[in-house]
Design a protein that fits this description.
The protein has a domain of about 120 residues. By secondary structure, the protein is α/β, with parallel strands linked by helices. The protein has ten helices and ten strands.
Amino acid sequence: MKFGLMYSFVVPPGSGFSNLDAYREMDELLPLAEELGFTSFHTTEHHFQFNGWAPSPLVVLGKAAGLTKTMRLATNILILPLYHPLRLAEDVATLDNLSEGRVTLGVSPGYVSEELAAFNVPMKERFGRFEEALDLLSLAWRGEEFTWEGKYFQVPQAKIVPKPVQERIPVWYGVSGPKLLQRAAERKVPVTASPRHTAAELVEHFAHYGEVAASSGYVPEERPVIREVFIAPTTEEAERLAGPAVTHLFSLYGKKSAQGERALRNDSGELISDESMVDFRTFSSRYVIADPETAIREIKELQATVQPTELICRMQLPGIPTRDLERSIRLFAQEIMPAFRD
């Protein structure tokens, strides 16, 4: 099992830590994480959030490309309907050249209504735009002249130069609904598992996805799973530092659940109908916040049930000071990773 590092650049107001501080951390901590054995760097996308949740994943990965040599660089995820696919095809191809072929494009149709509305994307069109954009991207990256006449996009004639370094840009689906899981399997691309779901829910998702994949002769080689992860010498200290951060992160999920846009349930199965119901203690099955010994046990349980090929550690959590994050990265690499080496 491989291990990746995820940044979302979420900074709670009044934390004494700025958005600029969060971006500056990359200069020191990304090369360190790569040196210690993390094999990938991931970033997310949301817009207009009061805490600065990263709105520009490709820009972030451009910086990451200059700070690292071997790490895979992944959008996990990029909200595809917010982009014109021709422009996105050029930007991703350029990033693939800058990174010498290290880009993975994780995509989602999006679910936050305010984001879609601000970019003039009707909520009801997001799935159609998502699928059409992926088809257009695949054609554009061949490096040949092409035209496109679709329902949502028209391209009279174009040729993407430079073409990507990789023969095929890896695409991941960041989805969990049955229809989209089926579509991912039919498109023969991996699914990246959201941290908002329990292990039991992920097992159910991957079972459905696997059945459809098997029926078409597709055997997925990757099963990336995202989890909030934070390590300290004791579990008590880890929870003191990272518990409030997880509550803060999950508040967006809770808000959308309360608004009826995307259901979220706590570990007891209770539907979140008010944002104030979100508390890290009631979502403990969805993160690894612990001392090294406990973390190894919890990750092995996740490995046994969900069978991830890569655990993506969202470790840059809201309000965590840089030195505490650095210590968590070091503890994870030095005391936890060895337990999972072949």
